[in-house]
Write a structure and sequence with these properties.
- This protein has 222 residues and is of the alpha/beta class.
- The chain has 2 domains: 30-172, 3-Layer(bba) Sandwich (Glucose Oxidase, domain 1); 179-215.
- 25% of the residues lie in helices and 28% in strands.
- The protein contains 5 helices and 11 strands.
- The strands form 2 sheets. Strands 1, 2, 3, 4, 5, 6, 7, 10 and 11 form a 9-stranded mixed β-sheet that branches. A two-stranded antiparallel sheet has the order 8-9.
- β3, α2 and β4 form a beta-alpha-beta unit.
- It is elongated and about 65 Å long.
- The two termini are 28 Å apart.
- It catalyses: 4-hydroxy-4-methyl-2-oxoglutarate = 2 pyruvate; oxaloacetate + H(+) = pyruvate + CO2.
- Its EC number is 4.1.1.112, 4.1.3.17.
- Belongs to the class II aldolase/RraA-like family.
- InterPro entries: RraA/RraA-like, RraA/RraA-like_sf.
Length: 222
Amino acid sequence: MSASHYPGSEAFKGIPTACISDALDTFGINGGLEGLKALGPGMALAGPAYTLQYEPVPEGETAQAGEFIDEVPEGHVVVIANGGRQYCTVWGDLLTHAAKIRGLRGTVIDGCCRDATAILQTGYPLFSLGSYMKSGKNRVRLAARQVPVTISSTVVCPGDIVAADDSGVIVIPKDVAEQAYRRVKEIEAMEERILLDLQNGMPMKEARIKHRYNQYALRVNV
């Protein structure tokens, strides 16, 4: 099969995260951000990561809300590493409106958002561990931006491609994005051939063998 042209992060828009995961498995790359879910059904995003690292505020100190939104380039996905904290939030409705105005593609939070109803009304794609009403002011603070961050054992670097849908959130390392995209196209074509054979009455086991379905699986050392 000839190699597909890779047009950049936009190429992953609309591709199911399950297919991307299968492609990354063939390179031995995890990429999944466990536990993060869409704030509402049907949300999806794909774009380069703009990373933010948060940390707790020491007892007795104060800290204002993180100021970063004005610096995020258009077309990027905000990735906030808040250490899985769910006792306070780092995103709300005002940031959502600012992000939409700036043309951002969505936000991914290892933690919680608030103003869930207002965010849902905007249709802005947001993925997090959940929602909670407590502000992050004086509880957590922005420690660094555009640095590698770790979310559920997966390292996310600035510029890595983030994709998300109802099945979850996955990160494609930028240095393998082109190869991953080509593998995704191979997998999509393979699954289309299997579906066609199923519709023509072929048993699943036979169709999978015929089209080498298990070739596209996690690479393991044996």
